[in-house]
Amino acid sequence: MTTVAEKRTPSAGSATRLGAERGTRAGRPALGWRILVVGLLTVFALYFLLPVYWLVVAATKSTGDLFGSFGLWFTRPQLLENLRNVLTYDHGIYLRWTFNSVLYAGAGAAIATVLAAMAGYALAKYEFRGRESVFNLILAGVLIPGTALALPLFLLFSQLGLANTYFAVLLPSVVSPFGVYLCRIYAAAAVPDSLVEAARIDGAGEARIFGVLAFRIMAPALVTIFLFQFVGIWNNYFLPLVMLSDPKLYPITLGLTSWQSFADRQPDLYQLTVGGAFLSVIPLMIAILVLQRFWRSGLTEGSVKG
Predict the structure, then answer these.
(1) pTM value surpassing 0.85
(2) Helix/strand number for the chain, H first, E second
(3) Which SS3 state, helix, strand or coil, does residue 164 take?
């Protein structure tokens, strides 16, 4: 005879079915959100990759096909010929612009990264009067757009006789308030005080502690700063426009704009501008692919006994 309690108590099979049904109902919203997120990310990826795809397609076309054919498909590809024209036009001025861009972006980003690492580490690990005021001043520098400083910098460099020189673009590029801010935050979180104290007890000087320990531990942040600064300087247009008047000192961005400004009188310059833009993307892709392996954390695991 079955009691009331036994009737109310579900069997093992029914409990399993109830759990499976609840799991299925709970999994359906999660699956739906996952599909929605993947769909949105796909749309965003296509949105950002479409200009790159157009650039690749346009770089293979002649000047006539550039305006007389469908923009998102190939028509009589002649990529190598177009690139050869870009590199040989006006006695190879594009190669000079490429060298200038590599100098501005490479040297500027490297120096800016080292200076940001030194400043950020000092603000994170040393106690001194006015430290927070200095840090707040640096944060204020992050909020000031670079375009607002271009004209005052030009007047200053003109007084110093440095306008229309390599230093007119290089010196402003080695300052990175955001890099100092990021290094301060990262050094405070990733460089243990116990590790620094252990190195001091072992007799290491402050410069050696920074160069051997802190600099390596901060590598992921430093790579991030270097890439941000490199891309920012490489794509910078307004500062070189204000500072430079000699075409031989132009970076790629300013040089391609000068080609485009004369394209109405010389239609072939349209294709040269597109080919030059295609070539200018390649160094950025190489830099990201080479440096992405340095983005790793956990470099301090096991360095200090708990």
Answers:
(1) no
(2) 17, 0
(3) coil
